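Sequence only, no structure available. Ideas?
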Amino acid sequence: MTEGQEQSDMLKKDILKKIGDYYGLRFQKPAFSKDNPKIPPSGKVFDEEELIMAVDAVLDGWWTEGRFHRAFSAELASFLGLKYVVPTNSGSSATLLAVSALTSPLLPEKKRLKKGDEIITVAAGFPTTVNPIVQNGLLPVFVDVELGTYNASVDKIRAAIGEKTRAVFLAHTLGNPFDVSAVRKLCDEHGLYLIEDCCDALGSTFDGKKVGTFGDMATFSFYPAHHITTGEGGAVVTDKPLFKRVLESLRDWGRDCWCDPGHDNTCGQRFGWKLGDLPLGYDHKYIYSHLGYNLKWTDMQAAIGLAQLKKLPAFLQQRKKNFDQMSRLLRSHEDFLLLPQTIHGSDPAWFGFPITMKWSSVKRKDLVIFLESKGIMTRMLFGGNLTRQPYFKDISYRVSGKLTNTDIIMEQTFWIGIHPQLGKEEMDYVGSCFRHFFKNLKH
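Reply:
I predicted one. Tokens follow.
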């Protein structure tokens, strides 16, 4: 090691120590106060380790996928028990890649989705579970969900299967698993692909197995609202090597080359390929097998994510603890509120606490405005009924049955936060506000 290298290493250690000191001064969380309460619906939890690792990645001077990317991918794959993790710049990009992968020319002709093929999903959710279906020229087929679980039943999915149905793409709503074992079995019986949207469900399990491991592919989001964060970021996971290759090609401009950043000639015949109408020996780094994108992330994001993964077990424990406490606090109001429900075999790592107002003189708007006035932030169940959103006016789709409960959700459902930033004091405060609201109703 040269003298310059020794000096730079010492300086780096000093910089990283100062980052830790900076965190202690800059990011001290104020104690909860009823005089100025603020209960956000979601939020990131971090300490000095995330800042140190992000700066460490910056000081490497590499910035694109590097050592932190490789470590994060390996850690997440180990946590899930899957072979392949393909990180990307957002959860929305992850869902786009997963659906697009089903249309890849690298898939066998009979397994490849073509324009006009159908994918079964739900309208009571977030747009980016549905949008990639439309963006790939496929037809979304909507089924209704159950109130309380906010997931589709396997019976409704079965009834929606038609001649053109080729896949099922469902989210585990707010971290609450749908009956993924039964849906997987149904898909196998009919030769359908299954994609799990786990953007709100990292760490949830069904029959003791982590969600995201049942489907042909699954997607995750690492936006600050979610179970872990990398700022922006997401991933597609799979056990299938062909899907891994397709996903990475689509993410990386559509290129056919699979070399890691900074590496050349991994295949050993960089100038020996004959693909398409290109001349023999055209540089494989510039041969494109897909109509792709640039949806990659950075090593700084991966570094933050690696620090977050270490905290994930504690995050999951706190979410479940907060959910249990909120359930106890609101149980006495079940004349007015439908509280969240699970199905046998599921163990959710809840993203939020969904509530549906029962038909009565109490309106969702009244309760939501009251809670917001008390510093308790609320959110709708995403798009409500997506078919009623302005952007869906000219989009083709099919509905199986009726979207009765989806419309009820649009009118009467909202959710509140139970994320790891919050503790017993905050949960008790939320409970007291609900009591105050319903007590005043009785008078």
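The longest strand covers residues 165-171.
Hope that gets you unstuck.
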